Amino acid sequence: MMGDISPPVASIPVVEGNAQAMNSKTLLPPLSTVASHFGTSGLSVALATGVTHPLDVLKVRLQMQHVGQRGPLIGMTGIFLQLMKQEGPRSLYLGLTPALTRSVLYGGLRLGLYEPTKVCFDWAFESTNVLVKIASGAFAGAVATALTNPVEVVKVRLQMNPNAVPIAEVREVVSKEGIGALWKGVGPAMVRAAALTASQLATYDETKRILVKRTSLEEGFHLHLCSSVVAGVVSTLITAPIDMIKTRLMLQQNSGSVRIYRNGFHCGYKVIRKEGPLALYKGGFAIFARLGPQTMITFILCEKLRSLAGLHKM
């Protein structure tokens, strides 16, 4: 949680010729600090992803039930038992390699861009209220997803195909559907990432501020745990429908047949019309079961890693 930040001012005399160089040095952090900032963010997300990945596989399988039709849904336990019986325990880690790759890149950017963006808003508008935090989170999430969407597409495809190999899957997608297929679902993915990061980081940031102000909690494990639990609940409620639409679009095949969904809005409309409004929350419990612990692990680890690296708290 950051307070107001103003550009640092050099306290030693500077000769006129070197003034510009010294100014840039005082405003920009060292490269090692930047690397630590993004590195601790990416590592914490990757570790959290590794722990919760089986729940992500279950979530995708739940979301792909009865596509385009109504019908009784199998619960998370049923899907789990079905996977164990038909595909074995290894199926719970389908798509793990691209998931970890994406976590380092996406997580590092998503968490890493939040605070610099918030600082820029602070300098521009002289405010760090909750709206600024929401806007900063939305921007960081959208940019991170736009850059890493191909890895997410490959991950989702692998989770539905136990025999696929990451590189071979990329080649098949590009050869059959074109390079643009790697950005399939990028619109809903960016919306989801913006909503997730805005709700997750802004809620965590604001909850920490309120708890420190109104309770006896101080900076440390218990404050981070309480704040991350609240952030996990809020972000799940907001992002579950967007996540389901994103999954449907990413798994939609382009070649040889007419697409079922034209875009995210059309997908949402058809799902509500043919499968019912609650279908938007297919896999909702799995999302919370994954996102809740992942949020807690991510924030607690990130705070600890930042402390070890000598960086400020979130």
Automatic annotation (TrEMBL):
Q: Where in the cell is it found?
A: Membrane
Which Pfam family is an annotated match for this chain, by its short name?
Mito_carr
Please indicate which superkingdom the organism of origin belongs to: Eukaryota
Task: Indicate yes or no for the key word Transmembrane helix.
Answer: yes
Which coarse location class applies to the principal site listed for this UniProt protein? membrane
Q: Which GO terms describe its cellular component?
A: membrane
Mind listing the UniProt keywords for this protein, alphabetically? Answer: Membrane, Repeat, Transmembrane, Transmembrane helix, Transport
Q: Which family does it belong to?
A: Belongs to the mitochondrial carrier (TC 2.A.29) family.
Q: What is this protein called?
A: Mitochondrial substrate carrier family protein
List the source organism: Brassica campestris
Q: Tell me the lineage of the source organism.
A: Eukaryota, Viridiplantae, Streptophyta, Embryophyta, Tracheophyta
